[in-house]
């Protein structure tokens, strides 16, 4: 009786505990991916994420085929689809790596019970975060709300396990179960095809992810600490979409970084990723509800649609904001410093609710994930965990002077801003700052 490995946010063969468990069972292996836009609470993927998924699945399917197995693609409510395939294929076991969002956990728990009731083995594994969320708590048993003690507590736990080796051969079934044709999922943009910049910048899939990790650790990481805040420096790892899709596990990155002598600053960025996922585990509504409930009193005005589209399209007249928003649209990525500046501008200079910005990033980022995006938007808004205080309002012009002093980043993404006639600014920084601080008084009054 074959084993099914249900791939989700872990589109890799190396360090894949669910795949390892299937191989240890010594039966043929069927790989499965389910596109689930239907189950209650499951957030449909954004456009850039769908682009990445298409290519990463293509790569995974090819790698499974090369090793003797297969990837079956199915669409629909996951709990039903996985159980159906298990029955039709006469499977004896289903294995998967854990997810941490509430709707995903509900599906997985219900499926586990149903499969076990039918006499199958159903087992899940830790693979996508370094520390399981329920193992990290304050002395009084509550989740951490401040990063530094959170990460200190993580580092006091046993070191994350060594990554598992990549299997060289994976036995398959003699007749593969029917699979959807990936093209029929229409994950790629058609009219218009907006993905040219994404194709130019990225190569999804596990082999390219491994190459990028190696390149970063051997060539680029020496300037990480000094230059990670300089958007034009190319000093950061660009591993975020690879982690989002699980083409690399955090364990692999952790251990290879330590071996390469890459320091604590880089590992502590992985710590922010852990913090975001742990926060989502404890506060499942992170994408829609203020973590600090006193922010519910914030009097958001009705958003000005022209301001919103100027922000989305990079036409605000503020150079670093426009550069960042155009980088995002063209490549599906934006440097972290610029993410902070563009998010702050939307929330505090345009007085537009962080949730509206979060949705735009969700649709346009190749690394948009269920935890980090809303976590960081709330961090900028001041409503989140260990957040920047609301009244700390970035001045986009000063931020550009400080982090892009020679305007290299701006010249690359918004060259009109370094021309003789830069575009007009859509708001006055001083006035909007004052209005934001005034609106914030309502939150202070509520707390
Ligand atoms: P590096 O500096 O090389 O960092 C290494 C890894 O650490 C990253 O790949 C990422 O996995 C993790 N990391 C670093 N900073 C953070 C952080 N602040 N929060 C969580 N993880 C972090 N990151 C996402 O992965 N997905 C998102 O949807 C996302 N949305 C964001 C929205 C806003 C408004 C802001 C301010 C930040 C957001 N980030 C998000 C965090 C951060 O900007 C990206 O992880 C980072 O820019 C990715 O580039 P890198 O891989 O080169 O980072």
Automatic annotation (TrEMBL):
Any one biological process term the GO annotation gives: response to light stimulus
Organism domain of life: Bacteria
Origin species: Microbacterium lemovicicum
Keywords in alphabetical order: Chromophore, FAD, Flavoprotein, Lyase
InterPro entries per record: Crypto/Photolyase_FAD-like_sf, Crypto/Photolyase_N_sf, Cryptochr/Photolyase_FAD-bd, Cryptochrome/DNA_photolyase_1, DNA_photolyase_1_CS_C, DNA_photolyase_N, Rossmann-like_a/b/a_fold
GO molecular function terms noted in the UniProt entry: deoxyribodipyrimidine photo-lyase activity; DNA binding; FAD binding
Documented EC number(s): 4.1.99.3
Annotated FAD binding sites: 224, 236-240, 266, 367-369
Domain Photolyase/cryptochrome alpha/beta: 1-130
Record-linked PANTHER family: CRYPTOCHROME, CRYPTOCHROME CIRCADIAN CLOCK 5 ISOFORM X1
Family to which the UniProt record says this protein belongs: Belongs to the DNA photolyase family.
Cofactor(s) needed: FAD
Enzyme class: lyase
Site (Electron transfer via tryptophanyl radical) location in chain: 300, 354, 377
Protein name: Deoxyribodipyrimidine photo-lyase
Cofactor binding description: Binds 1 FAD per subunit.
